[in-house]
Design goal:
Layout (H helix, E strand, L loop, with lengths): L1 H10 L5 H14 L5 E11 L2 E11 L2 E6 L6 H14 L3 E6 L6 E6 L11 E3 L8 H17 L5 H11 L3 H4 E8 L2 E10 L4 E6 L4 H13 L5 E8 L2 E8 L2
Parallel strand pairs: 3-4, 6-11, 9-10
Antiparallel strand pairs: 1-2, 2-3, 4-5, 7-8, 8-9, 10-11
Helix pairs in contact: 1-2
Length: about 240
């Protein structure tokens, strides 16, 4: 943190993230750290699917994610914990250089690697609407068996999209109609022409459920397959338009 403060003191707080990254790394090396790496790749794969993340800075096995944002958000916590779990390290630290004074936030990885594979799947409310729906469920289960739970839900979503042909085939701006009035379009991911799917990471799933239903009711889809990842609990539910 002393190197981070020194970097902001000399460069100010308006530089690009990569400037602080390179400057802090140089300062850490000069202070005597033996292993300092930047933009460290982490690859996650399953079959033909490949996803590469890059950790901003690792210094003697300590993980740092650098930011130049107005304020640190929950999504930044998710990012640094995601990296910590993938690398099986105990904690990661967020450092924000855009604040008036450098802000650091330590996040502990409380999930040992073996615990990520002790997940629970609740599919009691799932109703397949076709072969593709069966594929989504099998894919989800195979990703969990390979990677475990607790990771950023967007990783599982991207893997499902890849399986069905990529964003060009799956992501669709669907028209939204309310009472016969065209109110524009909304982004959906769909695996059938009449059925969409959504992947989320809500901690309070029941509060979000009515909003997904309202969204679907004004779309051209007759059903939605909803996969929610929250820590060790994975819920798969089918929402059907009445």
């Amino acid at each position: 943190m002393g190197c981070a403060f020194a970097s902001q003191n000399e460069l100010g707080r308006l530089c690009d993230e990569q400037n602080y990254e390179k400057d802090v790394a140089a300062r850490i090396r000069a202070s005597g750290f033996s292993d300092v790496r930047t933009q460290v790749p982490i690859e996650v794969s399953h079959g033909a699917f490949r996803k590469e993340y890059r950790v901003d800075l690792i210094a003697d096995d300590a993980l740092y994610e650098l930011k130049t944002v107005a304020a640190l958000l929950c999504e930044h916590d998710v990012q640094v914990l995601n990296y910590a779990m993938m690398l099986n390290v105990n904690h990661g630290k967020l450092i924000n250089f855009r604040a008036e004074r450098v802000k650091g936030r330590l996040r502990f990885n409380a999930v040992p690697t073996q615990d990520r594979y002790r997940f629970l799947i609740d599919d009691a409310a799932w109703r397949p609407q076709g072969r593709e729906c069966e594929e989504i469920i099998q894919l989800t289960k195979s990703f969990l068996a390979d990677w475990g739970a607790y990771l950023d839900f967007r990783l599982y979503e991207q893997a499902i999209i890849f399986h069905f042909g990529g964003e060009a085939e799956v992501v669709y701006q669907a028209p939204m109609i309310r009472g016969g009035v065209d109110i524009g379009s909304t982004r959906f991911t769909c695996h059938r022409t009449d059925v969409c799917f959504t992947v989320s990471g809500y901690s309070d799933r029941q509060r979000q459920r009515p909003h997904l239903i309202r969204q679907m009711l004004h779309s051209p889809f007759r059903a939605m397959q909803w996969i929610n990842f929250h820590q060790r609990n994975i819920t798969i539910e089918t929402l059907i338009k009445n």
